[in-house]
Specification:
With about 220 residues, the chain is mainly α. It has a three-stranded antiparallel β-sheet with strand order 1-2-3. Strand 2 and strand 3 form a beta hairpin. Helix 1 runs antiparallel to helix 2 and helix 4 runs antiparallel to helix 6. It is elongated, with a radius of gyration of 23 Å.
């Protein structure tokens, strides 16, 4: 048991400390169920509390500011894709011309973080930018940029990261009345936990807006 106590304390990371404490307590519950009394101190193991800090979330003012920083059609297309699709940076980098369905109004994301393909709706403004950038091309990458190149370009433009855009997209979609189910499907999230995580900081504001809509 001394090894367990040592394992619990040999880390400077609050997150690791929390995970280890949770694992030890879970082991303690199991020991209690099977009648092992040697690990009786598990109930005294403290679980580190970690403050969840609000993460940067793009709002409409950021979107308009980003539009003013666009100097090329590719810049414009990147911003419109970030604002209207919620796609991850690497997904945008891998997006190909043949993945775009202008008639259906969506982009196919064949390879995603969870391993399942999905379709992502694109706004009319994003469609116009994509048409202009793609031109007569029938194949190839849309932006011809790596994920790192996208990151550097956003930095140079002085606009938020792709992850901040993804959070902003989720909040804006819910604010506009899109259902949580549709947001999850378009984002590629398997549960509502990620929606809650991304919108936690603005949950009160979203609730007020939803009630106001219900009252007409």
């Amino acid at each position: 048991m001394s090894d367990i106590k040592k394992w619990l304390t040999t880390t400077n990371s609050k997150e690791v400390c929390r995970k280890r404490a949770q694992a030890a307590r879970a082991f303690g519950v199991w020991c209690e169920k099977v009648g092992l009394e040697e690990f009786g101190f598990w109930k005294q193991i403290p679980v580190q509390k970690i403050e969840i800090k609000p993460q940067r979330t793009v709002v409409e003012a950021d979107y308009k500011n980003a539009l003013s920083k666009c100097s090329t059609t590719r810049d414009l297309t990147l911003v419109e894709m970030l604002w209207s699709t919620g796609m991850r940076r690497e997904e945008i980098a891998r997006a190909s011309v043949e993945h775009v369905d202008f008639v259906g109004g969506f982009i196919l994301v064949p390879t995603t973080k969870n391993g399942r393909p999905r379709v992502v709706p694109i706004s009319p403004k994003a469609r116009r930018a994509l048409r202009k950038l793609i031109g007569r091309r029938e194949t190839g990458l849309i932006l011809n940029m790596t994920g790192n190149a996208i990151r550097l370009r956003l930095n140079k433009m002085g606009v938020p990261s792709a992850h901040a855009w993804r959070r902003g997209w989720a909040v804006q979609a819910l604010r506009s009345g899109v259902s949580e189910t549709s947001v999850r499907a378009a984002a590629g999230w398997s549960s509502g936990a990620m929606v809650a995580r991304y919108t936690r900081a603005l949950s009160g504001e979203l609730a007020v807006e939803e009630f106001q809509r219900s009252w007409g």
